[in-house]
Design a protein that fits this description.
It is globular, with a radius of gyration of 16 Å. Helices cover 41% and strands 20% of the residues. Helix 6 packs across helix 7 (150-168). Strands 3-2-1-4-5-6 form a six-stranded mixed sheet, sandwiched between helices. It has a single domain (5-192), classed as Ribonuclease H-like superfamily/Ribonuclease H (Nucleotidyltransferase, domain 5, 2-Layer Sandwich), CATH 3.30.420.10. Helix 4 (92-106) links the parallel strand 4 and strand 5. It is an alpha/beta fold.
């Protein structure tokens, strides 16, 4: 099976995982980046306050998303871009929590996705003082990117997975998870009727 997946990263307006304000997506086919996209998101009502701390991290402010579509209006675009892929994210629990939280706050169904965490893969692949995205990406040869820009972070995440797969001689996300002992998780209906494929 080829190394196919979509890397994803969210930035949020505040501490609520329902407050997605930006997303970046990078599509990988057979270990190569073939497409990338990013857009602003207007968080759901009640979750749309921009915390100063969050803005200090990612630089996004309320006026930046004022004309953006709501989560509920562009979820279909996210699902269409991923097109049934495994999702990969660094600290994937956060990003999958954003998808779930924003869907619940918007009263829409949580889409079905399986996912792998590049942070966990990095821990089983490199020996580092820190496994934060910049450090793990540097170990994968991906340096000097705009950390906390959703698209740049997605590209860094993709680079980690591709590099780790090459190092472990893994030809697919499933094989990489098996070799590293990392868990493949699920959200949506898949989370209700499946058990983890692998666990560290």
């Amino acid at each position: 099976m080829p190394l196919d997946f979509t890397a994803i990263d969210f930035e949020t307006a505040n501490s609520s995982n329902a407050s997605a304000c930006s997303v970046g997506l990078v599509k990988v086919r057979d270990g190569m980046v073939v497409d990338r996209v990013a857009w602003f998101i207007r968080p759901p009502a009640g979750f749309d306050h921009f915390n100063e701390w969050n803005t200090r991290i990612h630089g996004i402010m309320a006026p930046d998303v004022a004309d953006a579509k709501l989560w509920s209006e562009q979820l279909a675009d996210l699902v269409a871009f991923a097109d049934g892929d495994f999702l990969v994210a660094h600290n994937a629990g956060f990003d999958m929590g954003v998808i779930s939280g924003a869907c619940r706050a918007s009263f829409v169904d949580i889409p079905d996705f399986r996912y792998l965490c590049s942070l966990q893969v990095a821990r089983k692949t490199y020996t580092l003082d820190s496994y934060r995205l910049p450090m793990a990406a540097m170990a994968a040869g991906f340096e000097d990117f705009a950390h906390h820009d959703a698209l740049a972070d997605s590209e860094a995440c993709a680079a980690i997975i591709v590099h780790a797969a090459n190092r472990h001689d893994a030809s697919s996300i499933e094989e990489l998870a098996r070799i590293t002992g990392c868990r493949i998780g699920a959200i949506g209906a898949l989370a209700e009727d499946s058990t983890p494929m692998f666990r560290a």
